[in-house]
Amino acid sequence: SELYNMFSLFIKLFYLTRSMKVSLDVRVPESPAVALFGSDAVLNCSFSGVSEFNLSDLSVFWQLSDTKRAVHSFWQSRDQLSDQEERFSNRTSLFQDQLVSGNASLLLRRVRVADEGSYSCFVRVQTYGSAAMLMQVAAPFSKLLVTWGPESALKPGDAVALSCVAYGGYPEAEVLWQDGAGHNLTHNVTVSQVANEEGLFSSVLTVILEPSSTYSCRLSQPLLGEEAQASVTITQGLVFPPLALWLTVALAVCLLALLVALAAVCRRKIRESCEEMRRQPPALSREANKEVT
Ligand SMILES: *[C@@H]1O[C@H](CO)[C@@H](O)[C@H](O)[C@H]1NC(C)=O
Ligand SMILES: *[C@@H]1O[C@H](CO)[C@@H](O)[C@H](O)[C@H]1NC(C)=O
Ligand SMILES: *[C@@H]1O[C@H](CO)[C@@H](O)[C@H](O)[C@H]1NC(C)=O
Ligand SMILES: *[C@@H]1O[C@H](CO)[C@@H](O)[C@H](O)[C@H]1NC(C)=O
Ligand SMILES: *[C@@H]1O[C@H](CO)[C@@H](O)[C@H](O)[C@H]1NC(C)=O
Ligand SMILES: *[C@@H]1O[C@H](CO)[C@@H](O)[C@H](O)[C@H]1NC(C)=O
Question: What is the model's pTM?
Fold first, then answer.
């Protein structure tokens, strides 16, 4: 009797594991799918483990994994979009001709930053199965732009604020500032990355430096393998124009003062000689004659 009980347990276990094997094998990519902002993305989902079936017996549900909100639903041989999350409307579709061959992939058009997250693919036909996958959104940053200020009124020894700006990227980038010798200046940097209404970042970096060297700003975004670098050399040229201007002004003032002084001296000399001429005209004529001879 005990032997019989054990035998029946074995039989039950055998059927249990067999029925588990029959459940649908649903597969999605293991690593996150990277979708380019604004472009169309395919969220791959394939299923196997079913024999021939009619399309009318198939149900496919794409959901947001955390909220369970509907992204795209399909049953009774057609799309069922009445409960679809608003922000996905007109942007999703299945490859309907591929469904019978086990391809339940979702096409998501015009990808937005808000689309980033985990998606679950449920498939039911005879039995059911599901799998979840991550989608990451990426957008390349604009070309780096390095600016500095204040450009005017800059004297040697003044601090310079260098800004390194890149627009419209996602996700946030890593930024590294270096001086000409390759030293890490990250502790001198204030980084602010602000997102616009579309969720794309602009990276503004400000570094306070002595105006004497070459500084480079490097931005990297591992998701897109994006690397960009820009450098600026703050030479004496930047420092000198204001100084030269002051020198010119000072020189001009000196010259003017000199001329005024000279004029004053000359006028006095002329006046003196005129008075002398009035006092003793003959002497002057005699001297003039003397000069001619
Ligand atoms: C989707 O699956 C197909 C076929 O397995 C593969 O060629 C393609 O690279 C996959 N696409 C993505 C975004 O994973
Ligand atoms: C499903 O079909 C679409 C369209 O042909 C294709 O782009 C995608 O890679 C397929 N996915 C799989 C997992 O086969
Ligand atoms: C598919 O549906 C047709 C008619 O509805 C039926 O005759 C056929 O047996 C079904 N095939 C399978 C594999 O269920
Ligand atoms: C979807 O497309 C239909 C028809 O083209 C349009 O009437 C509707 O406003 C669109 N919905 C959204 C949210 O864009
Ligand atoms: C630069 O310095 C900062 C902190 O001072 C540090 O977090 C960062 O890892 C350094 N980067 C490199 C490439 O050395
Ligand atoms: C970085 O900042 C510190 C203090 O704020 C300053 O002493 C140092 O000179 C700065 N380094 C450079 C290269 O400007």
Answer: 0.69
